[in-house]
Amino acid sequence: MAMRVRACGVLLFLLASCATPAPRPNASAAGSLRLANLQKAATLPWRDDGRCVVREASQSWPLVVERCFQSLDTRRIHFRDTQRRCPVASADVVTLETMVGICLLTQPEIAVGAVLIIGAVVVAVAIQEQLNAYEFRWPYPEEGTAGETAEPATGTQSAEQQSLASRRPKPDGASSGQDWFPPGPPPSPEPHERRLECTPRPVPHLGGDALHNLCADKVPKNEFPGSDVLVNGKRFDALQLRQRLLWEVKTDNFDTYPTFLRTQVIENQLPELQRERTLAKACGFDFRIGVSSAAHRDALRDRDITLNVVVMDWC
């Protein structure tokens, strides 16, 4: 009888062990990996608006590159394996370029000049939407690993919402016949300094261009060396807080480009620079562009004399 009891006890223990759910993967670690992959992908031009990257972003970066390489706009990317990091067997030209491209993009640190992108990169729509979601979810993207901010309980209202609701005139009902006044005009917008999106926040460099990041970090009196600065939903390269001045840095070897390529670079850069200036000014900041050569400065100012462009003598 005792042996039968012990056997039942062991059976119950085994059943309980089987019923115990397996531990869930670390959600914060997965979110951190996904964010890092999205930030890397944001520096590259995509033909599919970044949809492949968004779909695969939870995988390791090498796997993301392998699965989504065909979605890259390789017409705007030159791969140069100057340090012989990617020895590959003989293959046709298309396969060889793909193999070298995947190899270089998955290096832990991409060598300067190994991946050259023609023109400015506007972050792909799908990737930007995902990055915006991370910015909304966590005050600082690098703090996302601490876990997501709790959602307010269903049916609850913030104090501000309740206050606004209490000030709204309400009809006494259709049958009462009493007049009621429509809501008054909405409150005036908050000043620049009080708007959350206008508060400068340091965020990690997107990476992929060591020279660009070095020049941005060395902007005189840069408030956040080692980081980009997020203002009004846009990552700027540097901030001089005392002057309320946001920077965009361009490190193109503009002097070495042929005429047709110079024209294409300016055509690509100009609309984005004008958009960045608009975003900066909407939050009360001035906007300045740093370039590597007088030729690049003059080409931009020839197209838009109102742009504040300077040659970076520190880089």
From TrEMBL:
UniProt keyword list: Signal
Region listing for Disordered, in residue ranges: 143-203
Record-annotated DUF6310 domain positions: 192-315
Low complexity composition-biased segments: 143-156
PROSITE patterns: PROKAR_LIPOPROTEIN (PS51257)
InterPro entries linked: DUF6310
Signal peptide: 1-22
Official protein name in the record: DUF6310 domain-containing protein
